[in-house]
Design brief:
The chain has 341 residues and is mainly alpha-helical. Helices cover 71% and strands 0% of the residues. The protein contains 8 helices and no strands. It is rod-shaped, with a radius of gyration of 76 Å.
């Protein structure tokens, strides 16, 4: 503002009045220019202030927008974080469930394999034990069969030896030596044709030693075994007759006479059976033995055993009874006298 007047003063001053008007005009122009400049500056300042206020408002609005955006972004970040955590949790659960399912399935397969292996092992052990048991049973059976065969052979040899010795003792009339060996042999060989023969020899030996009940038992066993000696039934009838079993003795006498009509003792058996029809079935207790016959005559000796029968003197006739005449007593059996063959 001071530059223009300073320039004016540098010009030559010709006219003071004109110079003064010029100066006044210049001053007025300068003032107007100054005021114009001031006004322009004020306007600029106002515009700048307005612009500053707008900028401030824009900045504040921008800050609010940014703040709102930041808040939204924080919310979104929080939501994203929550979603991520939930997704992670769900993923973890799913992975854990899948792993647990796979683990369970694999464990179940392993358990199944283990159980199958155990079952196969147990079956193999059972088969092995069964095989061992079969082998042991077969070995035991073979050993037992061998022992049984040896025992049977020994028993058969023992029975054969005892049977031959008993036959020799029976032929010699040593009846007490016949009973014990043959009874022991009957334990080893209770059945068969030879057992029937042993029962026969034992029964006759018991009859010789006056043990009539045992004699009857063995003679009945001999007949049940179809002994080949035809006089076995005659001996049984004689034993029953001596024991007072007259009813049974009559039946056996009749059966003998019917089965062996050609026997030399058939007539005696028939006669004695007819006589016993007048006797009671059983001898009364305390009754006299006068009407009880003695041991009858033995029939022919069995095959392989030479008969030796000694004729005993005939006993006195029994006194007659009111019901029947006395019967002659039969002869006593003896296997030592060959004259009676």
């Amino acid at each position: 503002m001071s530059a223009a007047p300073r320039a004016k003063t540098d010009e030559p001053q010709d006219d003071p009045a004109s110079s003064a008007s010029d100066a006044a005009a210049a001053a007025a122009a300068a003032d107007a220019e100054g005021w114009a400049l001031l006004e322009s500056l004020r306007r600029r300042l106002d515009e700048q202030a307005n612009q500053h206020r707008k900028t401030h408002a824009d900045v504040r609005q921008l800050a609010e927008s940014i703040g709102s955006l930041v808040r939204e972004q924080r919310k979104r970040s929080l939501w994203i974080n929550v979603n991520s955590f939930v997704a992670y949790l769900m993923f973890t659960l799913l992975c854990s469930g899948a792993f647990y399912f796979m683990y369970q399935r694999h464990a179940q397969e392993l358990v199944t394999e283990r159980d199958r292996a155990r079952s196969e092992r147990d079956e193999a052990v059972a088969r092995a034990n069964e095989s061992l048991a079969k082998i042991k049973a077969r070995d035991d059976a073979d050993a037992k069969a061998m022992l049984d065969a040896k025992a049977k052979a020994a028993a058969a040899l023992k029975v054969e030896t005892a049977f031959k010795d008993a036959q020799a003792a029976f032929k010699a009339g040593h009846y007490a030596d016949v009973i014990a060996p043959l009874e022991a042999s009957l334990v080893l060989e209770p059945t068969g044709a030879r057992a029937a023969q042993m029962h026969y020899y034992v029964g006759v030996s018991y009859a010789k030693t006056a043990e009539l009940e045992k004699a009857a038992t063995h003679l009945e066993a001999a007949l049940a075994g179809d002994v080949e000696f035809e006089d076995a039934r005659f001996h049984l009838a004689s034993v029953l007759d001596r024991a007072g079993q007259w009813g049974k003795a009559k039946v056996e006498y009749d059966r003998f006479a019917t089965a062996h009509p050609t026997s030399p003792h058939a007539a005696y058996a028939s006669g004695r059976g007819a006589t016993l029809t007048r006797f009671p079935p059983v001898r009364p207790a305390g009754a006299s033995n006068m009407n009880t016959p003695a041991q009858p005559v033995a029939p022919a000796a069995p095959p392989g055993v030479p008969a030796a029968i000694q004729k005993a003197p005939a006993p006195k006739a029994a006194a007659p009874t009111p019901k029947a005449p006395a019967q002659p007593a039969p002869k006593t059996i003896d296997f030592n006298d060959p004259s009676t063959e």
